[in-house]
Amino acid sequence: MRKRLENTNKYRISYIYGRGNHKSFGPGRVIIREGHVPQNFYLILSGTALVTKTSINRQTGEPFVRTAAFLKKGKTFGDVAILNGARRNATVLCHNTVSLLSVPRQDFINTFMSHFITFLRKIEVLSGWPVENLPDNKPGICIHTFFRRNTVISRDTKASSKIYIIKTGTIRVLKTLTSTKPHLPGKHSSISGDWKYQNTDNQSEEMHAKKAVRIKTSLPSRKSSRDVEFLLPLLQQGPAALEERADTPSPYTSSATVPKEASSTIHVEEHGSQIYIHVQMLKPGDVFGLVYLLFEDTFGMTLISEGAECILISKDFFKKYTDDAYLCKLSKVVQPYPSEQALQKQLQEYINWSAYKSLLFNRQQKLCAISK
Fold first, then answer.
1. Which parts of the sequence belong to the Cyclic nucleotide-binding domain (predicted)?
2. Helix (H, G, I), strand (E, B), or coil: what is residue 16?
3. Where exactly are the structural domains of the chain?
C-alpha cells in the first residue's frame, strides 16, 4: 500500500483528504481488530501504532499474540482486507496518542478503482476490451494487490483462474523441465576423424560435469534481469523465428567438429528434483495470460514476484466480454511460446556446453600441474 500511496498524484491525495475523517485516539485504543470486516482505510498523521497478530505455538498448540510491526507518521494500513474482500488479518492499536485520517471503505474503493481503470485503458493490448465493466467490489473477479519479493504468485498459470496485469515491479516467468544429464564428446577417432558422443554417466570426469550444471539457487530466489530473458528476442520476432530455432541442429550432434558454444544465454534454477528455466521477465504494463485465450496447448508456467503490484482479473470474466474483433486483434499482437520440446532442447544444449567447458578447464588444470 505504501508504494500505491507514494505513486498517488496530488488530485487523488486531495480526494482522499476531502472524503476522510480526522480522528485522534489515546494509548491502548484498538483501531482495527483481527477477524473483523473492514470498514475504513487509515493514514497516520502523528503518533505510533502497534500491529499484532495471533499465532499458534507449534509445540503446545496454544494461540498467542505477537508484535508484527510499528507504524509511524505517514504509514497506512487497512487496504489489504478492503481490496481483497477479506477480514482483517491483524489488530492495530495505539502505542501512544495517535492522530489519523480515516477513509470510508467505499470512498477508498472508488478512488483506487478509478485509478487502475485509467491505468488499464493505457495498456495497448487491452484496447478494445471493455475495462469499464470491471466491478469495484468483487474480489473474485478483479483484485488490485501487491506481491512481496519471492512470493510464488502461481505455480501453474494454465490452471490459474486469473489474468495478471503488472502495474509496478517485475515478475519472473519460469517453466518446469525434465532434469537431464550432459552428453559430451568422447575421444576423437584417428580413423574416421569423427567425435564419438556419449553420456557422462560412464565418464571418469562425471563429477566435474555435474558440478558445471549444478544449480546453487532454490525456488524462489532473486535473479538479475540480465540473466533472464533468453527467450524474449525470439518472442518479439514471432512464430517464424521460433520454428527456425526449433529446427536448428544442435551443436552437440555434429560429428565433424568440437561442440560450439550454445547460441543463447539462459538461466536455470533447481529446487529439489525440479529444474526451472527462465522464460520471460514481466514488467509494468505487461499482461500475462492472454496467450491461453488463443493457444490452448500453451503449457503452464510459474510466476515469481520480484516485488510487484498487480491487477488480477478472472479469466472467465475476461472471456465473457471478449468478442471476435478483440480476439482478432490479439492474434496479431500476442505471440505463442516455444514448445516444451524446444525449451527442453535449449536446456540440454546449455547443460552440454556448461559441462564441456568444465571438462576443458579441468584438463587444462591437470596439464598445468604436470608441466610444473
1. 4-108
2. helix
3. 2-109, 147-371
Average pLDDT over residues 188-206: 42
Task: Decide which of 7 and 85 is more confident.
Answer: 85
Q: Residue 278 pairs with which residues in a beta bridge?
A: 174
Distance CA 98, CA 26 (A): 6
pLDDT at residue 213 tops 60: no
Cell of 62: 496454544
pLDDT at residue 304 in the model: 92
Look up residue 122 and give its three cell numbers.
493505457
Q: How far is CA 236 from the centre of its chain?
A: 20
| Position with higher pLDDT, 93 vs 256 | 93
Rounded CA-CA distance 219/151 in Å is 10
CATH code for residues 2-109? 2.60.120.10
Assess contact for 330 and 294: CB atoms under 8 A. yes
Average pLDDT over every residue of 56-71: 90
Round the average pLDDT of the chain to a whole number and report it: 75
- Residue (of 262, 278, 187, 182) closest to 230 by Cα position: 278
Residues 6+ apart with CB under 8 A from 129: 318, 321, 322, 326
d(CA 53, CA 66): 6
For residue 214, is pLDDT > 80? no
Strand order in the sheet with 98-104: 21-25, 98-104, 40-46, 76-77
Element (H, E) at 19: helix 10-19
190-217: b (≥16 Cβ within 10 Å) or e: eeeeebeeeebeebeebebbeebbeeee
Q: What is the mean pLDDT of residues 317-343?
A: 91
> pTM for the full model?
0.61
